[in-house]
Write a structure and sequence with these properties.
Largest sheet: 8 strands, antiparallel, barrel
Shape: globular
Oligomer: single chain
Order of helices and strands: HHHHHHEEEHHEEEEEHEH
Helix content: 25-40%
Distance between the termini: 57 Å
C-alpha cells in the first residue's frame, strides 16, 4: 500500500502545483540531458524554445496535446507529471536479470567499460542497404544509465524519403542496447514499436587510430533479390561535445564513395566479399 502523508497525499504525488511543475521540469531535464542542444531538440519536437524553457524551469505545464507529443517522443507516459522519471523506469521488469537468463546475460555482457566503448557521439559509415552505389553516413549518441549502455540516433531523411517512408522524428528515431563481447561490443537496435531490428558488431581498429571501430550491421529482414541484409560498418568516436558532432549531423544521409573519408573506405574493404 502506498504510504500517505499527513495531508493524505502520496509522497510521490504532491498536491502543490508548484511542486508538480518542479517534478515535471526535473524529469524533462533528465530526459533531455543526452541531446546536448535544446534548440535542436525543440525543432525535432516542434515546440517553441521559450515555452520549452518554461517547462524545464518548472514555470508551467504543457497543454494535453503537447504533453502527448513529449511523452511519445521520449517513450514515457503521463506519469512524468507526478513521479520522478527514474521511478517510472524502475517499475518495469528487468528482462536481462530474469532468472531464466541468469548466467547467460546478466551483469557480465551488459557491463560495458568506458575505455572499451566511451560515452558520447559517434559518426558511422556503411554501404547502403538499398543502393550499392551509395553509402550511409550517420550520427549516434551513446550514454550510460546504470547498469546499461544505450545508443540513440535518427535515420537520414533522404534515405527514408527515397523509400517512400515517413520522415517524421518519431519514425526516424532508433534506439539500442550495447553489450560487451569477447572481441568488442554489439548493439541490438530498433525503431519505435518495430518488429524488425538490426544487429551491430564492432571491434576497435588498433593499427592507426584508437578512436575507430570496425565491424558490420545486419538487418532482420528476409532475403531479397535487391538490397542487402549485411554490410561492413565503421564507427569513429567524436567525443562528448557537439563541436565535432554537428558537422556530421549536417551531412548525415546518403553519400557517394568520394564523400567517404579515405581511411574509412579502406576499412570497409569494398572490393572484398562480406563473409
Amino acid at each position: 500500500m502506498t504510504k500517505k502523508t499527513a495531508t493524505g497525499a502520496s509522497p510521490h504525488h504532491p498536491e502543490d502545483p508548484a511542486a508538480l511543475r518542479g517534478i515535471f521540469g526535473q524529469n524533462l531535464k533528465t530526459l533531455t540531458a543526452p541531446y546536448g542542444s535544446v534548440s535542436a531538440l525543440c525543432r525535432e519536437l516542434g515546440i517553441n524554445r521559450t515555452q520549452f524553457n518554461r517547462y524545464l524551469s518548472g514555470e508551467s505545464f504543457p497543454r494535453p496535446d503537447v504533453l502527448h507529443q513529449i511523452c511519445r517522443f521520449f517513450n514515457v507516459d503521463a506519469r512524468i507529471l507526478l513521479e520522478p522519471v527514474e521511478a517510472i523506469y524502475t517499475t518495469s521488469p528487468e528482462l536481462l536479470s530474469h532468472p531464466f537468463l541468469s548466467g547467460f546475460f546478466g551483469s557480465g555482457p551488459t557491463a560495458v567499460p568506458e575505455d572499451a566503448f566511451p560515452s558520447g557521439f559517434y559518426s558511422f559509415v556503411r554501404r547502403s542497404f538499398i543502393d550499392d552505389a551509395l553509402f550511409t553516413i550517420g550520427l549516434v549518441y551513446v550514454h550510460r544509465e546504470e547498469p546499461y549502455t544505450f545508443l540513440r540516433g535518427f535515420e537520414p531523411r533522404d534515405a527514408l524519403r527515397s523509400q517512400g517512408l515517413s520522415t517524421a522524428a518519431g519514425s526516424r528515431e532508433y534506439r539500442g542496447l550495447v553489450m560487451r563481447q569477447e572481441e568488442g561490443v554489439m548493439a541490438l537496435v530498433t525503431h519505435r514499436s518495430s518488429l524488425a531490428c538490426s544487429f551491430n558488431f564492432l571491434t576497435r581498429e588498433t593499427s592507426f587510430q584508437s578512436n575507430i571501430w570496425e565491424g558490420y550491421a545486419t538487418r532482420t529482414v528476409r532475403e531479397k533479390v535487391t538490397g542487402r541484409r549485411a554490410a561492413r560498418m565503421v564507427y569513429e568516436y567524436l567525443g562528448p561535445g557537439l563541436q565535432r558532432a554537428l558537422p556530421v549531423a549536417r551531412r548525415a544521409g546518403l553519400a557517394a564513395l568520394e564523400d567517404i573519408p579515405l581511411f574509412h573506405a579502406r576499412l570497409l574493404r569494398l572490393n572484398e566479399t562480406f563473409r
